[in-house]
Amino acid sequence: MGDLSDTVIAMEGERILIDSLNRRFRVKNTVPLSPTPTTLGIYRKSKPWSVYFSMVATVLPAFFLMYASLFIILGFVESEPVLTLSGAMCSLPLSFLLFRLHRPRIIHVRLATPDESGSKVHALPEGGSLQTPSKTAFSRFIVKEDSILETPPSGQLWLFFSFTIILGLILTSLFLFGETVALGNTMFLLMAIPLWLVGFSLPVLAWWGSSTSSIGMPTKRREAESWLIAGMASAFPAFLFNSLIAPEIIPSSFPNWAVELSILAISAPIFEELFKALAVALFIPTITGPRKGFQIGFTVGLGFALIENFQYIGYSLIGGPLSITITILVRGVGSIPGHAVWTAISGCAIGWMITESDFKSRLTWRAKSAAIGTVDLIESIGIDLDGDGDLSGFDGERRSLQEEAVFIEENTSIGPTWLTEGASASNDPEVDKKQQFFNHGFGISYGSTAIKADLHGIKSPKSIKKALALAISGHALWNGSSYASFAIPQYLGAGDSVSGLVSLIWTVTLILSILAAARSLMNGVKSLES
Q1: DSSP secondary-structure letter at 128?
Q2: Phi/psi at 306 (5° precision)
Q3: How far apart are CA 218 and CA 221, in angstroms?
Q4: How far apart, in whole angstroms, are the C-alpha atoms of residue 135 and residue 112?
Q5: How many angstroms separate the Cα of 463 from the Cα of each of 281, 300, 354, 360, 475?
Q6: Does residue 10 or residue 264 have the better pLDDT?
Q7: Between helices 81-101 and 50-77, what is the axis angle to 10°?
Q8: Which single residue of 120, 130, 135, 298 has CA 20 to 30 Å from 66?
Q9: What CA–CA distance (Å, rounded) separates 472 from 248?
Q10: DSSP three-state, residue 454
Q11: In 3-state terms, the chain is what percent helix, strand and coil (to 5)?
Q12: How many other CB atoms sit within 10 Å of the CB of residue 270?
């Protein structure tokens, strides 16, 4: 286009460029970003299986990051810099990958609406222009990708899970006859890794989908994934305590069976339930009541179980197809809902705490007061923390508790409405219809119209102390009795076959009990205000 040696401002929103040949070019300015309209509806194609692949892609680096971080801690404890350096070098790429997978997603929306006072040509920020057949008003804005959580239909997930168990049994049967052992070995080598990946992850997704539809609350995918990741993260401190601290606390005079039982029935339930409850507490700003707390707690428990499953089912590969099949079945229908239910009880109690008068206002006010006090303290010793050229302390508005409550209420933002094609999270068509539209600013309960008043179920404790005690007791009963169901017959002189049978019968009893408890608790939480 030549040397554009001169520029003349023509009118608002346009420029005139003049080149060396005195030719004039009229260039429109880019429309600036504007606030997102609250009435906006954004359409997104249904992708129910994408959350599954995201979940698997997350747990793989998260698991190895847990062990890499362990090397860092061991290096500090044992004064081994090589361990610390090795752990740090392995942690960096894994951490980057996790942040990359779950970085906030934003969408640049460009909206052209018919307007006789508008224009047919609109400049685009990356260059070029948009031409419309008729005059339009052009606007653009940035929105977060806050679409609703979708999972594949629960029936479909449980069908795939059943197929996984059947496949494991078929592989096991090939080892029962001499002429098919070679074929069984070959098939197991080919199917071992797929069985492992599907076995540790698919039942978690199945319980995730079942709980989402049963609880009857809309969930943003971004939030649900953060709950799941928090559950995975809570497994790391629990792992450290159970592996490094608990063995040091147990008296050295204890026999091996007493040490194992102490870790399984005392240490693991206490530390795991405490850290999972702390993970739920991280989301207090978004918890609206006991029903929401139950949902977050259930998902956090699933995230914890996902990390555990990865390890337990991976170890079971050593025992062959029968070992991995039994492990997938027991953990898929027993341990996974166990972790979820125990943490959901704690989450429900945290939700009850939230319903106390002005709890969130008090919490926010205290956090801001602490931050303001920190600024005042640092500037009082001569450090200009806020860079305003004086040492007067915090210069912003200092609101009282009552003023903070009014401010929060008046400044609750309302975002766009998301529309998802074919989204379905329940068996009620009316609920499904309402689920398609989700205003993420309010967290509207789309399942409220489908809740029947005659639902009966267990009401979890409102006290956090009682809820934690119940969760720890349930966890301890599961772990301790599972260990005893095999150890006691062995102590009484029974063989491995009898001990294994007794343990299997007791495991089935525990599984049926936890499934009944999960169903009753969900029925109980359905009757709560959302």
Answers
A1: S
A2: -65, -45
A3: 10
A4: 9
A5: 14, 19, 12, 18, 18
A6: 264
A7: 160
A8: 298
A9: 21
A10: coil
A11: 65, 10, 25
A12: 19
Q: Residue 47: pLDDT above 80? A: no
Using alpha carbons only, give the angle 238, 239, 244 rounded to the nearest 5 degrees. 105
Task: Please identify which residue in the block is written with the tokens 């009966």.
Answer: 456
Would you place residue 436 in the very low, low, confident or very high pLDDT band (cuts 50, 70, 90)? very low
Q: Which H helix or E strand runs over 135?
A: strand 129-144
User: What residues contact residue 105 under an 8 Å CB cut-off, 6+ apart?
Assistant: 144, 145, 222
Start-to-end C-alpha separation, the chain: 63
Rounded Cα–Cα distance for residues 160 and 52 (Å): 13
More confidently predicted of 186 and 29: 186
* Tokens, residue 123: 């400049």
Please give the pLDDT value at position 416.
Answer: 60
Residue pair 291/530 in contact by the 8 Å Cβ criterion: yes
Q: Tokens 């299997």 — which residue?
A: 504
CA distances (Å), origin 341, targets 117, 234, 298: 59, 16, 6
The SS3 assignment for 445 reads coil
What is the pLDDT at residue 412? 54
What is the bridge-based pairing of β-strands 41-44 and 437-439?
A: unpaired
Distance (Å, whole) CA 300 – CA 345: 12
What are the residues facing 138 on neighbouring strands?
112
Q: CB count, 10 Å around CB of 479?
A: 21
In whole angstroms, what is the distance from residue 285 CA to residue 366 CA? 13
Q: How far is CA 24 from CA 4, 8, 30, 51, in A?
A: 9, 10, 19, 53
Burial label, 90 (beta-carbon count in 10 A; 0-12, 13-18, 19+): middle
Number of C-alpha atoms within 13 angstroms, CB side, residue 237? 14
Q: What is the DSSP string of 287-312?
A: --SHHHHHHHHHHHHHHHHHHHHHHH
Higher pLDDT, 226 or 37: 226
DSSP state of 285: G
**Alpha helical stretches, state H, 216-262:** 221-240, 246-249, 256-262
Q: What token pair was written down for 211?
A: 């709980």
Q: How confident is the model at residue 279 (pLDDT cuts 50, 70, 90)?
A: very high
CA nearest 277: which of 305, 306, 246, 298? 298
Contact 403, 392 (CB under 8 A): no
